[in-house]
Design a protein that fits this description.
The complex is a heterodimer of chains A (158) and B (424).
Chain A (H helix, E strand, L loop, with lengths): L7 H11 L9 H12 L4 H11 L3 H8 L13 E6 L2 H5 L2 H12 L12 E6 L11 E3 L2 E3 L4 H9 L3
Parallel strand pairs in A: 1-2
Antiparallel strand pairs in A: 1-3, 3-4
Chain B lengths: L18 H7 L4 H6 L4 H10 L12 H6 L10 E6 L9 H7 L1 H15 L3 E6 L4 H16 L15 E6 L9 H8 L23 E5 H5 L1 H7 L1 H7 L8 E8 L5 E6 L5 H8 L9 E5 L8 E2 L9 H6 L8 E6 L4 H15 L5 H18 L7 H12 L7 H15 L1 H10 L6
Helix pairs in contact in B: 3-6, 3-11, 5-6, 10-11, 14-15, 14-17, 15-16, 15-17, 16-17
The chains are: A alpha+beta (158), B alpha/beta (424).
Chain lengths: 158, 424
């Protein structure tokens, strides 16, 4: 295959991690996380390179990656908003947050703004029910949200 | 002490996290030193005495579970911590991991020694990125201080610990789905038997325990199984419990109380200061969204395993979702059912198809297009899912539907007949 897309850092981290598991396939989830950290999503080329590294067919990589909601098999915006709309957040007004975001960005849930800045999705329970409603903005939790708190947060993003 | 003793909640703040704090104020890593002088059988017997019942949801006695592990095994044994915390309404393990990670680590070293495992994994849900990093830091501290790795404290016992992140799948909270996910596969539950204690992670004998369960182990070893058992007020349910209360209460959050010492009413009205806006209570889901719902006049029940089972529901992960009178129960059930339809792994037909059918029917009722025969159909579908699937997700989806239709039938009928929600 051609030039590697994943960084040296990726490969050295995976080599370190390899000793922690009795099988190399067990590296698949950590490898997909690390690859996504580098590119923001998992393109077919990246899935293939991960498969090459582990020694499995790209179809097997995709079979696993597509099972989990956190792996982005399509590009996402610079800011990935994952608003929890499960029971506890629903009871605490998360629907209003979702509708507000849809209106603010002019997109529906599951879509990305044309400038590729924001992707909006509904998320299942984030485990922050005591501080509902909650959402994730990329990797970070934001809790006890209101529409105005959300606006403050979003309006400060570059 | 005048106030009942708690193990966790007083440490749920940032200062408790470092190893230095843990050693200075929480007798940190003294239990593991003690445990390494005991025999594995003694530790398991102490766990049995403690009446600790798994805090993940099933409530299985931990000591008995550890006892299932074969003494001799040609394959490596593993201890796996289920930190997937995916049952909607549950948010206690996150606090243990971010504030008292060393309790969990020490509990795992002791557990590993007791079952003869030399490697442990903490399978943490992917969304807890920050908590996974904090655990990694704490694990590094423990390695540096000689509480993990080779020849721990000169005992000759080796134990390594690795954090493994999930990637967004409710089903990975099911222990065999979790093990598949740990092995780099789709998180589809396995056919049982064999149970994990015979063939679990990577084919080796494996024990899977919840975070809260393992984090209590240092206390049990240091202060004894009998002491721990005595913290609980019921015969077969020891220790304290972390209750997660959310929804329409004035003070949602994690509450730690002796197992079996409190009723749902006391939790909601005394500890959480009652319902938001002093409204009337409509419904309580007492054990995570899988638990059958209770009405407002059923809450004078002790919030523990057997008392809740007796009235047809379950304590589950002790996640209590509280709903006030002005929230539509049809809409609530629609949300719950959508979740299970989304999270069904698709292996078993009754669950894969049935959850989607239930979602569609409840959605049309909620949107005013319900039909007279819909409630009978919902009960028929849920009956045909329940007990007919490899894992508990099928039952988890069926239980809410059956109980909501049974207990709030008038609300569903009003939607069907009136073509809209009567509360709007």
């Amino acid at each position: 295959m051609g030039k590697k897309l994943l960084s040296e850092k990726f490969y050295s981290a995976m080599t370190t991690l390899e000793s922690r598991y009795p099988s190399k396939v067990a590296l698949l989830l950590p490898a997909l996380h690390a690859a996504q950290d580098e590119f923001g999503w998992l393109s077919p080329e990246i899935l293939e390179e991960v498969g090459d590294f582990i020694g499995i067919h790209p179809a097997q990589v995709r079979e696993v990656a597509s099972f989990y909601t956190m792996y982005n098999l399509k590009p996402v915006g610079k800011y990935h908003l994952k608003v929890c709309t499960n029971v506890a957040c629903c009871l605490r007004g998360s629907e209003e947050l979702v509708q507000h975001c849809e209106k603010k960005f002019g997109i529906q849930v599951g879509e990305t703004t044309r400038d590729k800045k924001f992707t909006l999705v509904e998320e299942e329970c984030l485990g922050a029910c005591g501080t509902a409603p909650a959402m994730m903005l990329n990797d970070d939790y934001h809790e006890n949200l209101t529409v105005s708190k959300l606006d403050q947060l979003l309006d400060h993003l570059e | 002490m005048e106030t009942p003793e708690t193990l966790f909640i007083q440490y749920f703040n940032e200062e408790s996290r470092p190893l230095a704090f843990y050693q200075k104020n929480m007798a940190g890593y003294t239990a593991v030193k003690k445990a390494l002088t005991l025999s594995p059988d003694d530790i398991i017997s102490e766990m049995k005495k403690s009446n600790m019942r798994g805090r993940g949801g099933a409530g299985f006695p931990t000591g008995m579970k550890w006892g299932f592990i074969p003494k001799q095994s040609p394959k490596a044994k593993y201890l796996v911590c289920n930190a997937d915390e995916s049952e909607p309404g549950t948010f206690k393990d996150r606090d243990i991991m971010r504030y008292t990670p060393h309790l969990l680590i020490e509990g795992m070293v002791i557990g590993g020694f007791a079952i003869g495992a030399h490697h442990g994994y903490i399978y943490i849900r992917g969304e807890y990125t920050r908590e996974a990093k904090l655990l990694d830091q704490a694990i590094q501290e423990a390695y540096d201080a000689g509480y993990l790795g080779k020849n721990i404290q000169g005992s000759g016992f080796d134990f390594d610990l690795t954090v493994h992140r999930g990637a967004g799948a409710y089903i990975c909270g099911e222990e065999t789905g979790l093990l598949n996910s740990l092995e780099g596969k789709r998180g589809e539950p396995r056919v049982k038997p064999p149970f994990p204690a015979q063939a679990g992670a990577f084919g080796g004998p494996t024990i899977v325990n919840n975070v809260e369960t393992l984090a209590a182990v240092p206390y049990i070893i240091n202060r004894g199984g009998e002491w721990f058992s005595g913290l609980g007020k019921l015969e077969k349910s020891g220790g304290t419990r972390l209750f997660c209360v959310s929804g329409h209460v004035k003070k949602p959050g994690v509450y730690e109380l002796g197992a079996g010492s409190v009723t749902l009413r006391q939790l909601i009205y005394d500890h959480c200061h009652g319902i938001l806006g002093d409204k009337k209570l409509k419904a309580v889901i007492p054990g995570g969204s899988s638990a059958p719902v209770l009405t407002a006049d059923e809450i004078d029940v002790i919030a523990d395993i057997e008392p809740l089972m007796k009235i047809g529901t379950m304590l589950g992960s002790a996640a209590i979702l509280v709903v006030s009178e002005d929230y539509c129960v049809v809409k609530l059930l629609q949300r719950i059912t959508r979740f299970y339809a989304h999270e069904s792994c698709g292996q078993c037909t009754p669950c894969r198809e049935g959850c989607k059918w239930m979602e569609d029917i409840i959605e049309r009722i909620e949107h005013g297009h319900g039909r007279e025969e819909d409630l009978a159909m919902l009960l028929d579908i849920s009956n045909n899912i329940s007990g007919r699937t490899l894992c508990a997700l099928g039952d988890a989806a069926a239980g809410p539907v059956m109980s909501f239709v049974k207990k709030f039938r008038a609300d569903f009928e009003a939607h069907i007949r009136g073509g809209k929600c009567p509360n709007v």
